[in-house]
What we know:
The chain has helices at about 10-15, 15-20, 65-80, 95-105, 115-125, 160, 165-175, 180-185; strands at about 5-10, 35, 40-45, 50-60, 85-90, 110-115, 130-135, 135-140, 145-150. By secondary structure, it is α/β, with parallel strands linked by helices. The protein has a single domain (about 5-185), classed as 3-Layer(aba) Sandwich (Glutaredoxin), CATH 3.40.30.10. Mean pLDDT is about 80; it is low at about 15-25 and about 205-214.
Amino acid sequence: MKQKCRVSLAVLLAGLAGVLAGGAAWARNAPVFSLPDADGKDIALAAFRGQYVVLDFIQTTCPHCRAAGTVLQKMYAENRDRLMVISISDPSTTAAAVRQYVQDHGITYPVLIGDLKAYVDYLGVSPQKPSVAVPVFFFIGRGGEILEERSLERASDKDWFANMEQNLEASIKKMLPVKPAENSRKTGGAAKKRPAGKKEPKAEGGKQKAVGQL
């Protein structure tokens, strides 16, 4: 990732230093929100309690966010029985821009229009930090706890974002429990049981011969 995309909220933050001083940035438990999609329908994080959630903050024009959206759609389509993906765009995004973003990438998970509170609660924006690099990812457990965070603002995540698409898929797979079928394939499947009463064939000389041995 050679160039960062930034969301600036300087206009919204002007004069609000006192109001925002208590923002719960990088909270261990995911802050609740209810935000509108492009059709004006409010989507609440609380509605997905009991599922794993990937939450990412985006700009619809950001090429890195678009690349991440392709991975997120793939993982959502493969795991939608237990995984929800939610994207939050910046507050200045129009409904038309969100619709175009969704259409361009065949996205079927919610893409919401953010507000100042969401950016304060999750990204720690403030009058002293009025902008943030996107995308930013939060991997949220079934109980609402944040299991993993990835942000371009942190030097420790530089390598992760250098291979963002591969690492994004790996982080989702790490968060989700292994399905029984997947576990069976990894271990070679359950050992086949011999029907009751059937004895091993014996080779000449009384020695037992392996099943299937000619």
